[in-house]
Design brief:
oxidoreductase, nine-stranded mixed sheet, 2,3-Dihydroxybiphenyl 1,2-Dioxygenase, domain 1, alpha+beta, 4OHPhenylPyrv_dOase, 21 strands, binds fe (ii) ion, 12 helices, EC 1.13.11.27, eight-stranded mixed sheet
Length: 507
């Protein structure tokens, strides 16, 4: 006797309840039938599986389309206004140094801050950074237009300038040591921005031709070339916001000037001979509203090449972020990064916070290279509470527990411990290691701050056999960007709490 073949089939079509389309009708639960009777059921099941597969594909296609739209939205504002400019992100970026500078760039020359009282600003920075005041141009030197004091540590020069009363100056504007200084511009600058950087100055072979070439390639002129004595020529180009790029050239580099003509040596004993080990400016970063426009503008008139880039995905936390491009000169020793805010995050981007408090674009931070970051930090932290600079909150202990894996081949256990004690961040790229730390904003507003860095590795020899360190060695702290933003967000939250506490109670 032939018994019918028996088969039990259990089907779970619960997924059909969450689908927007109606699935083919399939019998529920289990069935027990012979092979012939089962055929129609199997056809239904096959149909349903095909339907389910198609639906999954549709969903995948929809998700892919959504992702593309999101990426396009994110990069929309960086492509606007600059055809052909599109960020590719850190991982996809390939550096090409075609040595494309339009004129001969030598090095950073100085940074000039405009303020309302140069004496106090200069002394505060002198004390906080270990940079003695070495030169002056003020009433005592016959300058009736502006008071300027120069701080120096190694090759780093910071100049602080404030206006005197125009009623004192009268028609003696030619007593200014920096002839491009303008009373009303300086007053308006300080009113808008508070303490801020007016000029990023670079030494070039010829400040006249650098100016002419820049203007011929779209640069907005700020001040035409002027010889300020002893063969020194100065010219200025608008950079971003109210910040300018200042070109300085010297016909006779061997001439022994303390700084620029018109400046005199600061009296011995008037400035305490501090030295915390800071040696030069590594990079000067700007915050702008439209990165594509700013980068295209500066690239076009300087010929600088793109050294690195970071997108919101590379550097942002879940709550804030930025897009960033680093421009570099031929030898990559003049580095000009620029940031723009990214929108649509839970908390406002701190770049946007800067733009609001600064009333527009401007210099966000200055990265200073030290020859010994531990020594520099010990000295700076000692002065934090007594007139020096405070630092952003240190990363959590877990950061340093992981550091041995990340940089244990370069840093000893003692050095890692010292990094933790001092709150130093560590990052590396394919070439070297970067040690870095950020101060809190240096003035009243949450705008400009200082970064102290030490780069390790990338030592090469020039044509004359002289050893030097390649520019940008170890990167810019991409891996630490998120740590920075987390700590800035923490800091901003404390400001909000303070605001709530100090808010007067309703009557
Ligand atoms: Fe930096």
């Amino acid at each position: 006797m032939n018994h019918p073949r028996v088969c039990n089939v259990t089907t779970d079509f619960s997924i059909s309840r969450s689908l927007s389309l109606s699935p083919p009708q399939v019998p529920n639960l289990w069935i027990s039938v012979n092979a012939k009777q089962l055929r129609p059921q199997l056809r239904h099941i096959a149909l349903f599986l095909r339907y389910k597969r198609n639906l999954v594909r549709q969903r995948q296609r929809a998700e892919e389309a959504e992702m593309v739209t999101a990426v396009e939205k994110k990069t929309e504002h960086v492509t606007n206004g600059a055809p052909g400019f599109k960020l590719v992100g850190y991982a996809n970026f390939v550096r090409h140094n075609l040595k494309s500078d339009r004129f001969h760039v030598k090095r950073f020359h100085h940074i000039e801050f405009w303020c309302t009282d140069a004496t106090n600003s200069a002394r505060r920075f002198s004390w906080g950074l270990g940079m003695p005041i070495v030169a002056k141009s003020d009433l005592s030197t016959g300058n009736l237009v502006h008071a300027s004091y120069l701080l120096r540590s190694g090759d780093l020069d910071f100049l602080f300038t404030a206006p005197y009363s125009p009623s004192i100056t009268g028609n003696l504007t030619n007593t200014a040591s920096i002839p491009t200084f303008n009373h009303s511009a300086a007053r308006s600058f300080s009113a808008s921005h508070g303490l801020a950087v007016r000029a990023i100055s670079i030494e070039v072979e010829d400040a006249t031709s650098a100016f002419n070439i820049s203007v011929a390639h779209g640069a907005k002129p700020s001040s035409p070339p002027v010889e300020i004595g002893d063969g020194v020529v100065l010219s200025e180009i608008h950079l971003y916001g109210d910040a300018i790029l200042r070109y300085i050239s010297r016909k006779n580099p061997n001439l022994n000037l303390i700084f620029l003509p018109g400046f005199e040596k600061y009296e011995e004993g008037s400035s305490y001979p501090l030295d915390f080990g800071i040696r030069r400016l590594d990079h000067a970063v700007g915050n702008v509203t439209n990165l594509a426009e700013a980068v295209s503008y500066v690239k076009e008139f300087t010929g600088f090449h793109e050294f690195a880039e970071f997108t919101a995905e590379d550097v942002g936390t879940s709550e804030s972020g930025l897009n960033s491009v680093v421009l570099a000169s031929n030898d990559e020793m003049v580095l000009l990064p620029m940031n723009e805010p990214v929108f649509g995050t839970k908390r406002k981007s701190q770049i946007q916070t800067y733009l609001e408090h600064n009333e527009g674009p401007g210099v966000q931070h200055l990265a200073l290279v030290t020859e010994d970051i531990f020594r520099t930090l010990r000295e700076m932290r000692r002065r934090s509470a007594v007139g020096g600079f405070e630092f952003m909150p240190s990363p959590p202990p877990t950061y340093y527990r992981n550091l041995k894996n990340r940089a244990g081949d370069v840093l000893t256990d003692e050095q890692i411990k010292e990094c933790e004690d001092l709150g130093i961040l560590v990052d590396r790229d394919d070439q070297g290691v970067l040690l870095q730390i950020f101060t809190k904003p240096v003035g009243d507003r949450p705008t400009i701050f200082i970064e102290i860095i030490q780069r390790i590795g990338c030592m090469v020899k020039d044509e004359e056999g002289k050893t030097y360190q390649k520019g940008g060695c170890g990167g810019f702290g991409k891996g630490n960007f998120s740590e920075l933003f987390k700590s800035i967000e923490e800091y901003e939250k404390t400001l909000e709490v303070a605001k709530q506490i100090t808010k007067p109670a309703a009557a």
